[in-house]
Amino acid sequence: MITCRRAAFAAALGLFTVVCVITANAASPESHPPEPHPWMNTSLSFDQRADLVLKEMTLDEKIDLMHGQGMPGWSRPMPRTYLGNQGAGFILGIPRLGIPQVEMSDAAYGVRMSAQNGRYSTALPANIAAAASWDPEAACEYGALIGRELRAQGYNMTLGGGVNLTREPRNGRTFEYQGEDPLLAGTLVGNRIKCEQAQHVIGDIKHYVMNDQENGRDEVDVIIGKRAMQETDLLAFHIGIGVGDPAAVMCSYNSVNGEYACQNTYTLTDVLKQDWQFKGFVLSDWGGTHSTVKASAAGLDHEEPMDDFYGEKLKQAVEAGKVPMAQLDDHVHRILRSMFQAGLFDYPTQKSVVDVEGGLAISRRLAEQSIVLLKNTGGLLPLDRNTVHSIAVIGPHADTGMISGGGSAQVDPPGEPAAPWQAHVWFPTSPLKAVSAAGPGIKVQFGSGAEPASAAALARQSDVAIVFAYEWMSEGTDLPSLSLPENQDALIEQVAAANPRTIVVLETGTAVLMPWIDKVGGVLEAWYAGSKGADAVANVLFGSVNPGAKLPMTFPLSERDLPHPDLIKPPNGGEDAGAAVKPEDAKATFSVHYDEGLKVGYKWYDAENKPVLFPFGYGLSYTTYQYSDLKVVAGKEPTVNFTVKNTGGRAGAEIAEVYVALPAAADEPPKRLAGWSKVQLNPGESKQIRLQINPRELSIYDDSSNGWKQLPGAYTFMVGGSSKDLPLHQEINLP
Ligand code: BGC
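^ thats the input. predicted complex w/ beta-D-glucopyranose below
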């Protein structure tokens, strides 16, 4: 209704101005704000709210929630792709019912695709680096930052949270994952997801499951026994889901024991939805859906990024009774429930400006906690500003930047155009500048290393040489080997021959072989160190940060020592050739037999008595620690008590590790990680640690009963600073 009146102040001036106010007519139906939908009642459970929405939905609306709307640049355009936030995919909102759009973005170590969308993202250290911190609180901070930046950029769902175990260290996505141990990886990914989801973005854990190599990922059939799968890769997911309660699980491209992971009844329904009681929804990896009726029955709830199987074909299947309405409703219920759980209805996204400086500070701090000191001969590190007068900084890009991990994990560096698929992206964090800034007064010179002889000459004239060596990795391709590429081994050899006070800083996403290890004075594993990597490295080199990180994966001596010395490739030898096959025609063309079974990572080297270059859980500090007074108290959840003392001259954080050997009858590898504690200690300080061990860490999966069981017998607990340095042992009997 429009009402007009003469304004009083105008009347006072003898003028008559007509002021018209548009108000809602009290008598008309639109006069009241619309009644909120009943599902907006936050005192109802997520399930109740989801059911209330579901009751109102038409078949077409339900189907709309079950598929994506295309991804910019994906195979064929879809008519509504432009309606999205230009991320990896989205679920169309339904304004009639107030159902918000679900906007998804990749966000492994930061939000993807920011450059092409005129946005900005912080690059955190890679996920494998974050795992090296062994720190659930740091994982939480990592997830919270990504969650905030997703929201600021208009997204409300992450596609981060990779937790495939490192069975094959040449896997091109190793940097996106959390290492080789299910307890460590699952705990860290869970904490990351928990805090990411607390920012009101749907959390996602991926790639479920056994997607442990990139070679032929669309056409490989992974063959593995049930027990081995349950105790390794599935366990990492189970722990991650238990801790983080992600609202989504992304099923993977590969096939598992004869069936594609996105239509695999065993993994999706029997394990995930029934045994683990997962209440969220399963979405396919991009193009990983292969059927309609079969996938729906097996437990796939949502197809990305398009509607090849879950659009018109799904509608027809429902109308023909091939997909029962109850099954369809379960899929839709799960998607709606997830939206309620993550807060998408209650906290609509509002774009804002990312906190750039805050993000850089967090990224630097997390990188400092992720850098592993692998070698330090004669206390060469930390560098002493009083005695070091000249430094040679050597490496292909050591003057300008540090390498980052590629593929869908790629974060765009600020001020640079969008990185093409699988480009080598160097983040503008300059080692040369950072080392110069950390050592004022020290003569710092740069050599690219393009000519090893001149790099060696520079090293010879310098008190210390620091070689920044790198290995780029990406989704879609595996590393041909674990050796540093581009002649970098020869470069390091020559520099070290010229100056034994050579420190190698590794920028890698996985283990590397180090034929020069005996010739160099120091080695830091800096991983892909993120937006502020160089500052973090310089802070460790000069000792303003005492390194405390430890390896989340074994560094082997040789590829011959791996469970599969040669990468197993598709028959045509091509990498990822299956991507070219039409999804409905796709079938596995080759198998990878994970016949090492339970023996993943350190469990393999332990069981096979193979020496390694650096063991799982290893990392040095600028101080030293001593372990004593182990006392294990038996019980349903045994408690492991011990003391750690800082016996050196600097404050530090020690990751104290607890392993357990199961009774012989369990037929397990020699030991498994059962817990850890990160202890902050001043010089001379001791702390008593008390760790309660979850019975799961003492149990084995029993194929015959399809469940976990703990065997009676002798359990040996071992405590120390790495999987190969466990000075404390105690055996207890458990019923
Ligand atoms: C990757 C996923 C990613 C998706 C969307 C796929 O190729 O495997 O990890 O989330 O693309 O970009």
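The pocket of beta-D-glucopyranose is lined by residues 88, 106, 159, 206, 285-286, 408, 475 (CB under 6 Å).
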